[in-house]
Amino acid sequence: RSSCLDVMISSWFTILSVVMSEGPSPAVDT
After folding, report:
1. Are the C-beta atoms of residues 19 and 28 closer than 8 Å to each other?
2. How far is CA 7 from CA 12, 15, 22, 27, in A?
3. How far apart are CA 5 and CA 19, in angstroms?
4. Cβ contacts of residue 20 below 8 Å, gap of 6+?
5. Strands (DSSP E) along the chain, which ranges?
6. Cα 12 from chain centroid (whole Å)
7. What pLDDT shows up at residue 24?
8. 28 contact partners, CB below 8 Å, separation of at least 6
9. How far is it, in rounded angstroms, from Cα 21 to Cα 27?
10. What is the largest CA-CA distance in the chain?
């Protein structure tokens, strides 16, 4: 298990969370 990948996924999900939260289209919730 590569911790590097874990960190990448963690950061990616964090960014995605922020983008989805502050996105201009809050209706896009799948």
Report:
1. no
2. 8, 12, 22, 29
3. 21
4. 28, 29
5. none
6. 4
7. 64
8. 20
9. 10
10. 36
Closest alpha carbon to 19 in 3, 5, 11? 11
Tokens for 22, please give them.
């502050």
pTM for the whole thing?
0.47
Q: Report d(CA 23, CA 5) in Å as an integer.
A: 26
- Residue range 10-28, pLDDT digits in tens: 999 988 888 777 766 655 5
Q: Which amino acid is at 22?
A: E
**Residue at token pair 């590569």:** 2
Which DSSP letter does residue 15 get?
H
